[in-house]
Amino acid sequence: EFPNYAEIYPEHVDRGIIQLRNFKQREIEILLLNNPEGSSYTSWQNLMNPLEILLDKVDKQFDTVLFIKDAVDNSPKMRKACKNFLLWRWWGKLEERMAHMLIPHFKRLITGDGQQNEAKRRAAAVQLMELEFGGVNLQERGLSRTATWAEDITDWHHYQAARNNLFNLTQIWNENIEDDMSRKSFLVRHHEELEGLPKFVLQDAADAALQAGYQKATAEDGPWKITLDDAMLEP
Predict the structure, then answer these.
(1) What is the pLDDT of residues 84-114, one digit of tens each?
(2) Using CA atoms, how far apart are residues 27 and 38, in angstroms rounded to an integer?
(3) Is the pTM of this model over 0.70?
(4) pLDDT tens, position by position, 207-232
(5) How far apart are CA 176 and CA 169, in angstroms?
(6) Cα radius of gyration rounded to whole Å, the chain
(7) How far from 117 is each of 96, 121, 175, 199, CA to CA, in Å?
(8) Percent helix, strand and coil across the chain, each to the nearest 5
(9) How far apart are alpha carbons 225 and 12 in whole angstroms?
């Protein structure tokens, strides 16, 4: 069953991030308990099954927020909430401060003696790459400590600084595209020019016109502001 997207507001997204972060931390702690460091035994059921369920939950929540931002509510508050979600997600789908303990287990699944088929070995390899892209191998005992002196700056801090710059560049690029799309809009005053469009598209166009200052805009009589938002383009 799909959620009622129209009843999801930016404050719900902000609270959802906190709840999802707490849920993920608990699940990672359980993963570490079931796959202790130094153990010579690794099973798909103890590692990959719960991990895939956890990551799938994160992805579904993010996709829902992204859809709302693109197709339902493109307000500045929702865009900010989506950016906060993206920032949290960017810094790793796993809590990386202790995730280095899982690396030997992933390697054991990849190089196992025929216990896993090719598809499972590739799935484990993808998760191992996710950890390495997060800089887990560069952390001191897996802990991301705070540097207070110049000599304390490590390769891990340089790597995370580069990742932060990349995220900012990506965000600036996406925001520039969104701003350019919002500027490329035009006003329609004659209903026959919009013949055949669904009623909800006309309503969205009238709402956009209201936001642009056309106080008498209605879905029936216009005027309608046509934008490049997904909600208008996809129908």
Answers:
(1) 888 887 766 555 556 677 888 888 888 875 5
(2) 20
(3) no
(4) 888 888 898 899 888 899 888 776 56
(5) 11
(6) 23
(7) 27, 6, 42, 51
(8) 65, 5, 30
(9) 28
